[in-house]
Design goal:
mainly alpha, 3-stranded antiparallel beta sheet, TniQ, TniQ domain-containing protein, two-stranded antiparallel ribbon, 5 strands
Length: about 300
Amino acid sequence: MLSLTVPFQPNETLASYCSRIAALNGIESAAEFASHFGFNFGRLAEGWETDVNVFCALLGSRQGRPADGVVIQSREFVETPGGTFSREFLETDRCRFCPACVANDIGPARRLHRAFGRVEWMMKFVHTCPEHGIRLQTVSGDRLKASDFSAQLRTAIADLENLAGPRSTRPAGFQDYVVNRLRGGPPHGNWLDKFPLQSAAHFTQLLGAVAKYGREPELEEFDDDDWVEVSDIGYAMVSRGEQALDSALDPFFDLKPIRRKISLSMLLGRLSVELLERADQPGYTELLRYLENAARWKHPTLTSELPY
């Protein structure tokens, strides 16, 4: 077992933990560190069981529950301690961090191995630090080394103070909801709670987008500020409960179709289309069924577009 270790932190990824231990032991590359002890860092970052077991055995039982930080990556999906997500909603090839959190972690002595990567920093639904309210920063380093948290930070640490932007004054209800669920916090009693986190959060974003920009928002043109804005709009709508959400959707169902056959995509545009494209992922079919049932109050002959 290693003699030089650090405590595993809540909400830390296992790859971050390995990276920090490598740094503490004077090795700047987590991949090199892993090679000395018989496991592969790249596979550890992807959650391979054999490599996770070797690393955890190396630590012994003294440092909390590092296996709780395992992130399992496959070609299309990433399984985190807080849920499973499509790769499109997580940043796995860029290292994101909060400059204020890192500054607090490393302290005045700038001990790099004390700074740890939080799971929520990987989430594209999360744009600002939940604790400090400042915009997360992205290290423009080697994509193949994005999981090596200490090595990535080493390239940005000199500019840490300049990277910390102003605190956001926007309400953070949507992001707080996402982070709370990701961390396994207590339920908020929100209508969204019945759906998996990815589908719940994605639906909220899309709902806010069509509420602000109409049936066909140019989602591809959205920047981070746009996504933050529509996410908060959508969250304000769903937070009032299902009955209030029905009322908010009602104007979209006032469309008078030229053709006799009518579908949800005609009524809700990109909201429906984006959900349908992911109907094979958990929660999306249930959301589409809810929307279809809501639309049938005005369009009883609505044709379902669900594949099953």
